[in-house]
Specification:
By secondary structure, the chain is mostly helical. It has one domain. Helices cover about 75% and strands about 0% of the residues. It is built from 23 helices and no strands. It is globular, with a radius of gyration of 22 Å. The N terminus is likely disordered.
Amino acid sequence: MPETFPTTLAISHTWDWVIFAAVYAGIAIGTIPFTRLNRSAIALLGAIAVVAIGRLSFTDAVGHVDFATLALLFALMVIAAMLRVAGFYTRIIEWIVSRAHKPWTLLVGVIAAAAILSAIFANDIICLAFAPVLCVGLQKAGRRPLPYLIALATSSNIGSAATIIGNPQNMLIGQSAHLSFGHYCLIAAPLVLACLILNVLVVAIVYRKTLFTAAEIAVVGPQHAELVVPDFPFRPWQVAKTLLIMLGLMLAFLFTGVPREISALVAAGLVLISRTQDPRKLFALVDWELILLFIGLFVVIGNVQQQGLMQQALDHITAQGVQIYQPVPFSLITVALSNIVSNVPAVLLLKHGLAVPAGTADPVTYTWYLLAVVSTFAGNFTLLGSIANLIVAEQSKPHGVKMGFVEYLKAGVPLTILTTVLAVVYFGWLV
């Protein structure tokens, strides 16, 4: 007879399960029927419900919020925003498009730039800044933007896996497990590089007919381009100052024992000190909805954990013979969950079954690393798998470029399968 949860547990924790299930179902769907709620609002309402019905006191709820991760996320968003308003991202993509005259060099240039910058800054910011400029530059050069836009989305996801500050879920993993910044980069870099090569090959094969045809007559007029592309003039001094501060921050991550969130906040503070730049413009570019999503999920999942339900659920699954933290099932569950509820909620859920590693060579450390890269690679599976994908799709619409759900699958599905398999084999070899 199959093992079941005790009846008393099911009754006494009914509301905990209802709130948890409602929040994750709402996040999976993206809204609640007959409302205009989005994922951030749903998570926040779940947190409010937990406190309102007395499952957690306000103090306990606040205690479950990981403010260190939020501070790190906020600080890096401010730094990335300064580079955006200083015209840095626009100048990079314009330089690549103007100098890469062959499809191969253009494709490699877009993928390399998106990956490198996404490893240091948020991949969402890179896609938001790159997509419209890439559309205009390619259309003026008479080239079809679609393959390059898909490459932008996929490479920004893959590249962001190279560091534990490359995307929100990696920041969360790095803070939760106290992972070494340098060791993670050292281990993840070869895997990410190999996956970026796969990215080039997959996009080139899938879109070979589009990529390798002769350039056509430009299909967009300059007046249309000016209407759609944000006007961020290049400011060399602001760019140089911000990049210098970011270099100092990377060195602090690598060679000092100062907590990452403190180092990042100091760097963001230095960026904010300016005679010409209004901080309100930078704060407007911070993704406050993502921060609210984190806060809501911290409280909802913290409640389930505090009530002992998370461990009960993990014990129940293990009792059925499913070893979910073995590399293959763990990777499959991560990919599936990341594409159902998105990778941040998936990581928040999965991380509770992992112990904090004892050292950099500990097998548990590599499981955390596997969670970081696979949850990130999973974002390439479908158009909805990553916010970065959706940003590219939305930013390309005004230019007449349709990056549809089915169209994206052509490259997204094989790329996700190949990179996930490679990650499992790679970490299996390391352990």
